[in-house]
Amino acid sequence: MVGAKDTFAVSGFTPLPAQCVAPARTAQCPVQLEAFVTAVHSARGEAPFVHLETRKPLGDAERAVLHPSGTRFDVGAGSPLFYVSRHAFGQGSPLGARFRAAREAG
Questions:
Q1: Which of 71, 93, 67 lies closest to 82 in space, CA to CA?
Q2: Is the dihedral of CA 84, 90, 94, 97 positive or negative?
Q3: pLDDT above 70 covers what percent of the chain?
Q4: Three-state SS letters, the chain
Q5: Per-residue confidence (pLDDT) for residue 74, from 0 to 100
Q6: Is the pTM of this model over 0.70?
Q7: Are 64 and 78 contacting, i.e. CB atoms less than 8 angstroms apart?
Q8: Above 80 in pLDDT, residue 72?
Q9: pLDDT above 90 (res 77)
């Protein structure tokens, strides 16, 4: 529901208090990142979005999504969703694309 007052209630996810920022974290998310916006950059042309530059004071991840070394993510663990240049991918197969992706391809 767009514009819902309590997005956690609508989605069924559980809110957790953040440590460094105001918005709540999501308990069911295996990767937790809190960041502060340090700069906002306009996109090129008339694109209706901006690029955010951030400083990440806090990051945490469940062991299940980490490489055994503990120094990086194991992208084969679980079922991660990757969003790259307006396209969503699971492990290997495309799962969808934003409306602009089709216009850019044609």
A1: 93
A2: negative
A3: 69
A4: CCCCCCHHHHHCCCEECCCCCCCCEECCCCEEEEEEEEEEEECCCCCCCEEEEEEEEEEEECHHHECCCCCCECCCCCCCCEEECCEEECCCCEEEECHHHHHHHC
A5: 83
A6: no
A7: yes
A8: yes
A9: no
